[in-house]
Amino acid sequence: MIKKFWNILIVFYLLAHPAYAYEFTKVSEFFNVVQNDYIESPDLQKTSLIGLEALSQIDSSFHLYHSDTKAFLYYQKNLMATLDLPTDKKDAVAWGKFTNDVLNQCLTISPNLATHSVALESQILELMTRSLDDFSRVDKLPSAHIVSQYDVKNDIVYIKPTLFFSGISDDIKNLISSYADLDGIILDLRGCKGGNFNEALKTADLFLDGALIAYSADNKHIKKFYNATPGDILNGKPIAILTDSYTASAAELVTAALSEQSRATIIGTKTYGKNSIQDLYQFNDQILFLTSGYFYTPSGKSIHQVGLMPQICTGVDNSCLLPDTKDSLKDIKIATKLIKKNFS
After folding, report:
1. Strand order in 78-84's β-sheet?
2. What does the pLDDT read at residue 6?
3. pLDDT at position 15, please?
């Protein structure tokens, strides 16, 4: 009797209260960009259902079960809705609509969940993205800037980008151009986890004279080659690149291009090993990093899970794997000596 009364009460509540007006635009945009730009052919049923697990994480009264053709939405152990699953696991429009339908029904059922709708959508986006591959991710807006310093004594410019953000290649070009007589540069890519693929290409292009920078392959295995334009803004003056285990993706592209073309010397410890190309999409305060391709070094190597090994290893006992944290300036000192030696 009590259970029957509870069911009647819920039905009355649903009839008396219209659906909440919150629009899950991030979810809709996610399915659109995944269908158009993702490197693989994703199973969107799996992606949607994994994302909807966030419901029970935020409100433990919700549970979503499914068979091969239907989904069953429970609230406080009561069946609230039965929904047909889209038949095509690759139909982004259908799965976006299904996901939104489930979410809007849940907001109507639970006022508590409705007050956390923004957090719910962000968590769903993170779960769905994480289900795609090891490198696609959702993150907060990254801090993107350049730390630079001019060593007057040695005529060397130290440049440390936190990320390969839009416009960084122009910033580096302008920074170097502001000094008339340089003996070389130190490009510190330690801790740089990547960024914009095109900006990495443009940055490498600054120091190469018509050589191959890298090539990429998409989900149809179609190769695209990226060649540098004529001219090297340093006119062949030495470059030292500092790396560690956090040097990844776009930062590894620049490192590989310059080292394999004998344009720079790598100093430090082994890099992370990530050759995926990520397209970046901004969803309000979040950035979706979506894998759209893979890049290869000029010699055709894939650095995936392998990384790049420095020519000069500066780790503990000259290890290439374990950084020496006792001397934070060790790599810079070695790079400075190398540049002065090569320049003289």
Report:
1. 62-66, 70-75, 78-84
2. 43
3. 41
C-alpha–C-alpha distance, residues 309 and 324, integer Å: 16
- Between 325 and 97, whose confidence is greater? 97
**pLDDT reported for residue 126:** 94
> In the beta sheet, which residues pair with residue 277?
293
In angstroms, the CA 283 to CA 285 distance is 6
CB burial string 49-67: b at 16+ within 10 A, e below? bbbbbbbeebbebbebeee
**Are 309 and 270 spatial neighbours (Cβ–Cβ below 8 Å)?**
yes
180-195 pLDDT tens trace: 889 999 999 999 988 8
Quote the CA–CA distance of 186 and 169 in Å, as a whole number: 15
Q: Where are the alpha helices (DSSP H) in the chain?
A: 2-16, 25-37, 44-51, 54-58, 92-109, 111-114, 117-130, 168-177, 197-205, 250-260, 330-343
**Nearest Cα to Cα of residue 281 among 22, 38, 91:** 38
Contacts of 108 (CB under 8 A, 6+ apart): 14, 17, 18, 19, 20, 114
* Structural domains of the chain ordered from first start: 2-133 (no CATH), 146-343 (3.90.226.10)
What confidence tens digit (pLDDT) does each residue in 24-42 have?
889 999 999 998 889 888 8
Which one has a higher pLDDT value, 9 or 258? 258
Among 1-5, 144-148, 207-211, the range with the most confident prediction by mean pLDDT is 207-211
**Angle formed at CA 192 by CA 329 and CA 316, multiple of 5 degrees:** 40
- How many H helices and E strands in the chain? 11, 14
Q: How confident is the model at residue 199 (pLDDT cuts 50, 70, 90)?
A: very high
Query: What distance in Å separates the CA atoms of residue 341 and residue 39, rounded to the nearest whole number?
Result: 45
DSSP string, 175-212: HHHT-SS-SEEEEE-TT---B-HHHHHHHHHTT-SS-E
Q: CA-CA distances (angstroms) from residue 11 to 74, 80, 148, 209? A: 13, 9, 64, 71
